[in-house]
Amino acid sequence: MNTALWFVQAVLALAFIAAGSMKVFAYEKYKAMSENNGPTDLKRGLVTFIGFSELAGAIGIVLPLADNVAPWLSPIAAAGLATVMLLAVLYHLRRHESPAVPAGLFLLALFVAIGRFSQWT
């Protein structure tokens, strides 16, 4: 189980580094991609905040447990990423877009959160 959790944590970290970096460092490209189905109502500040949250979650889901410094932060980061993805699912549903990718990331983050929290109970 530990190997599966580490694998999923690595996949999540890579996915959120990519997504968060685009939102923070390439906002214009992100905006152009997200407006394919019509204009969005997200402001630049909110998108940047989401991007920084995703980057922090990507680091937090791996680094504390890998360094064994405050390893309890990893499941908290996974729970935070699951929350962000649940909100993303609702946002995509409201825009009549496919919520498949954020739903998949939500399930993976939830798996890590539950799996890592269960180690301390």
Description:
This protein has helices at residues 2-25, 27-34, 44-67, 73-94, 100-117. It has 121 residues and is mostly helical. The protein has one domain. Helix 1 (2-25) crosses helix 2 (27-34), helix 3 packs antiparallel against helix 4 and helix 4 (73-94) packs antiparallel against helix 5. The mean pLDDT is 92.
Strand count:
0
Shape: elongated
Q: What is the helical fraction, as a range of percent?
A: over 70%
Tally of domains: 1
Average of per-residue pLDDT values? 92
Taking all Cα atoms into account, the compactness measure Rg is 15 Å
Could you give the order of the helices and strands?
A: HHHHH
Kindly report how far apart the N and C termini lie: 16 Å
Contiguous uncertain segments of 5+ residues: none
**Main sheet overview:** none
Supply the number of helical segments.
5
Q: What is the beta-strand fraction?
A: under 5%
Structural class, judged by helices and strands? mainly alpha
SSE inventory with pairings:
Elements lengths: L1 H24 L1 H8 L9 H24 L5 H22 L5 H18 L4
Helix pairs in contact: 1-2, 1-3, 1-5, 3-4, 4-5
